[in-house]
Structure formats: structure tokens, C-alpha cells
Amino acid sequence: MDATPLQAWRDTLQELGVLGLVREAQPQAPPAVQPPARKVEARPALPPPKPAGVAYAPPTDPLGCPPDAAVAGAADLAALAQAIQGCLRCPLGPGRMRFVFGEGHPRARLMFVGEGPGRDEDLQGRPFVGKAGELLDRMIEALGLRREDTYIANVVKCRPPDNRTPTPDEARACLGYLRRQIELIQPAVIVTLGATPLRELVGLTDGITRIRGQWRQVKVGDRDIPVMPTFHPAYVLRQYTQEVRRAVWEDLKAAKAWVDKASS
Ligand code: SF4
């Protein structure tokens, strides 16, 4: 791993004077979303870290599509992963090395949603474990959190060939799984990383450069969940300007501040 970009990210935070100041930031409330009225329940103990994602298992039904009832009826994340791990609903399924379900705290308050697995993720069966994942980890740490305090998932669970963007048909074939994950986790805030989750999950086709940093929301189940759109870490690594780094940092601070407010 070339450490230079990550060190530069840290240097940028220091230049901006933002390291260690996360809790001092006063959140600007999303316009149309109220924090949950109920007292947040104590979260269960963190699950032990998983060295690898859900291993591939051949589908048991001839079409490779888990029944919708099995998805909707999954009582927890483990049951959902078990139900869908053999999925061949879209053309990405046959090409995967490993199924990348997602990982993190089962009741995370902050959830990240990216586009889809890349090469490293496909090999390991875990989301965001390549260079972009290392940068995301640093961002989370800079917020005063640990990766395992959050939940990280993608719009599609199988790697698109050559890391291309999933087609709308592929994304929509997989979207029900992500939505059920969100229902089970009940995050206070979702941070979408890049244009694809914004388009497929939230239904917005505006350019990410124009819309990033502006609160949106998505209805999942009976909840309206605030959404903070920001750049994908891979884009940050490609466009490694202070302007881009500052923008992402401001977006993440806003998301974290809203999580704190919703949890207080
Ligand atoms: S990307 Fe999603 S819908 Fe397509 S085969 Fe994989 S799990 Fe199934």
C-alpha cells in the first residue's frame, strides 16, 4: 500500500485544524427529517471480527434466486446472508469469486453504502478492503469511530467485471437485499459513497459533484432515513486535491454530528 495518500489525508485534516474537533461541531439538521423520538436502546456487544465474508454456496433453487419471502422474513443479518449467499439473480453472480454481503455493527448508527466489490473485495469477501477501503477506515477513525462501529455495504454484492459500474438492471436486481439490510440495521444516517448508491438507493440522478454535502432521505420500511451523499473514496484517491478532501471531511462531520444528535 502506498502510504502517501493516507498520510496526506491526515496532513490535510491537520492543516484544516479538524482533527480532534469532531465533537465540537454543531450539526445542521437535515431539512425534513426528525430524530427518532424513542430512546436509543443499548446496542448488543460487538460481534467478533470475521476474517472473511460469506463463502460462496451454490444456489439450491434452479434459478438461483432466493424467494422474496426468505429475504423479507430474514430475522437478522446472518439469516439474510444465509438466504441470499447463493444468489444468481443477475449476470454478476456467475463471475464472482466471493459473495460480499457487507459487515459491521448489526445496529450501527452510521452506515456507508458504496457501489460494488472490487478485486480485493471479491477475493476476500469483505467490503472496502483495498486502497479505497483503507482510506475509508482512516476517515472513520478521524471521526472518532472504529470501522466495526459502523456498517459498510454496497449496492451490488458481486463484483462487476473490470470494476465497471453496475448496470441499472444489476443494481435493481440486488437492491432488495440492501434495503432489507438497512431495515434490520436501522441506521440513524446513511452516507452514500459516489453516484451509484445515490441513484439506485435514493433515486437521484443529479451529479455527485453538485449534490454532495446536501441532505437527502430515503424511505426504507416505515422509516425515513437521512442520507448524506459524498464522494467515493476511490474518487478521492484519484482526485487527491485539498478541495475534494475538505469536501468529504465536511460531509462526514455532518453525518457524524447528526448521528450524535439522533442518539442523544
Ligand atoms: S449482484 Fe446481487 S442480484 Fe446479482 S447475483 Fe450478486 S447477489 Fe444476486
Supply the key terms.
6-stranded mixed β-sheet, single chain, 264 residues, binds iron/sulfur cluster
Question: What is this structure, in a nutshell?
Answer:
This protein is an alpha/beta fold and 264 residues long.
Can you tell me about this structure?
The chain is α/β, with parallel strands linked by helices. Strands 1-3-2-4-6-5 form a 6-stranded mixed sheet. Helix 1 packs parallel to helix 5 and helix 1 crosses helix 10. 44% of the residues are buried. The structure holds iron/sulfur cluster. Iron/sulfur cluster binds next to helix 6. The site of iron/sulfur cluster has 12 residues, from helix 6.
| Physical arrangement of strands within the biggest beta sheet | 1-3-2-4-6-5
CATH architecture: 3-Layer(aba) Sandwich
Strand content: 5-15%
Given the structure, what is the number of helices? 10
- Helical content, roughly? 25-40%
Distance between the termini: 38 Å
Shape: globular
Helix-strand pattern = HHHEEHHEHEHHEEHH
Question: Biggest sheet: strands, sense, closure?
Answer: 6 strands, mixed
Report the CATH superfamily: Uracil-DNA glycosylase-like domain
Category from helices, strands and their pairing: alpha/beta
